[in-house]
Amino acid sequence: MQAMIEMTKLTKAYKQERGVFGMKLQIRPGEIVGIVGQNGAGKTTTMRMLMGFIKPTSGHSEISGLDTWQSAAKTKALIGYVPGEIAFPDTKSGATFLKMQLELLRRSQDVYVNELIQRFKIDLTADIKRMSKGMKQKTALVCAFMTQAPLLLLDEPTTGLDPVMRETFIDLLLQVKTKGTTVFLSSHMFNELERTCDRILFLKNGQVIDQLDQKKVTALHQYQRVMIQGTDEQDYNRLMQTNFELVDSEPERYTVTLLVNEKQTAPLLDLLQTIELQNISFSIQNLDNYFEKELATH
Amino acid sequence: MSFPLLKQTFKANFAVWSLVTLVMNAILAQLILMKQTATMVGPMYYGMLASTIIALFVVICGDKVLVGQVDQGSMAYILTAPIKRTTVALTQMGYLIGSLIVTFGLMVGTSLLANNIADAGFKSQVLIDLNLGAFMVALAFAGIVFAASGIFNLSKFALGTGGLLVILFILLAIIGSFADYGVKALDTVQDLTIVSLFDYKNIMIEGSQWLPKLAVLGGIAVATFGVGTAFFAKKDLPL
Ligand SMILES: Nc1ncnc2c1ncn2[C@@H]1O[C@H](COP(=O)(O)OP(=O)(O)OP(=O)(O)O)[C@@H](O)[C@H]1O
Ligand SMILES: [Mg+2]
After folding, report:
1. What is the mean pLDDT of residues A12-27?
2. What number does the ligand 1 atom closest to the CA of A188 have?
3. DSSP string across A146-215
4. Ligand 1, from A44, A53, A86, A159: best to mutate by most atoms within 8 Å of Cβ?
5. What top-level branch of life does the organism fall under (chain B) (predicted)?
């Protein structure tokens, strides 16, 4: 089957070694793939290359077999896009903007568009220049989803959304997934990617340095983060010398945080018996924790 | 050309365009209608005012049609539609040229009508040619601003080059016009501005030198509109 997105050694080199370097990626139709990375990692640059807004320095990318730079006008017919920075044209209200956009897309305001407006609780009468960050973001999301395009490119789609709207967004993502829509989205929030993505790429300094699939995510969840507080220096030293993976330590409070997997409960209990326990707490290892580690080690 | 985009651009620029067009027609009619001022139609209106007022529209809207929207980020929405960048540039260019045609077309009507009412004594052909000349200056200005608008991604750079150049040409034309009032040293200044390629004096004496000069303005317009379109189609857009 033809890949929806195919990147081959995709590179955009800006000055001072910034940009995106040698990105290789294949996304199948119907897949939801997330890309995470710190500020400046290259997420937006990747999206812009896929949109044909910027020309790769070397390598290339294709959408449904069409070169994203050469055939940008054709590939656009396949894409719904949410830009990383939302700025609307000078019009009166959300309603006039959506109408303009539908005209450009040569579509009419059908049932689906109205459904989207309702789901995101968009106030169409609001002055477009006075819209709050979240309102703008929601309007931009409606613009992308209303294309009903087979591919959605969403650059940090949830910035500015309140928790309820974030849920609405996730629901919508899962809904379009059932229709076979391919989604490539970027985010700083690992946890929302975890619920929707088939795969999550970790981008650092313009390079994909790690890739998590569902299997790896499940494996991650088998770990617990255990925070143990001892009473004195002796306890602390003992805690520091275990075979468990150390995630965090606070010598002043004689506290360490260890990574413990399901099968290691016995050794953990043994350890706890050797110290005078002040406090202990468990939390599930999630992607945020995982990438925290990743960020520290690379 | 994309019709929906043309419609959007028309709406977005309507206020500036209509105001400029109204002011230009009103002043022109006024000058022709009042007997004492009819002599100033040439040197003051076509020599100075016409290019200055239309420059307002050209600089503001020429900036807004491309670079303004790239800088602001709203161009992203236009370009998410399956539309070629060349088509976007050509549509915006079509808007600018079309608006100028309507503005100066209206001015032809206004001047002929006022001339008729006031019996100001202008030959119809002279009035038509004067408006054609002023239109060609406006077209060349529009091309220059459009080129800057297509080349740059930041409004301030486009205004600082294209916009500034247009203002400079107008200033030089105004300074140069004092040559007509006896300051001979300023003659050379007139060679520094494209505004003087619109030879209104020659048109008014029904000479034959003005037409080739207007062709030069046409050439500038073709080149600059071409440059703007070519750059806009190829450059990186931060959207
Ligand atoms: N036009 C440009 N010229 C020079 N450098 C650029 C340009 N665009 C982006 N960069 C640099 O490329 C790097 C990647 O930027 P990019 O916008 O892709 O990051 P990002 O992952 O989207 O970050 P954020 O999370 O802040 O949105 C940054 O270091 C940025 O400064
Ligand atoms: Mg970004």
Report:
1. 93
2. 25
3. TT--SEEEEESTTTT--HHHHHHHHHHHHHHHHTT-EEEEEES-HHHHHHH-SEEEEEETTEEEEEEEHH
4. A44
5. Bacteria
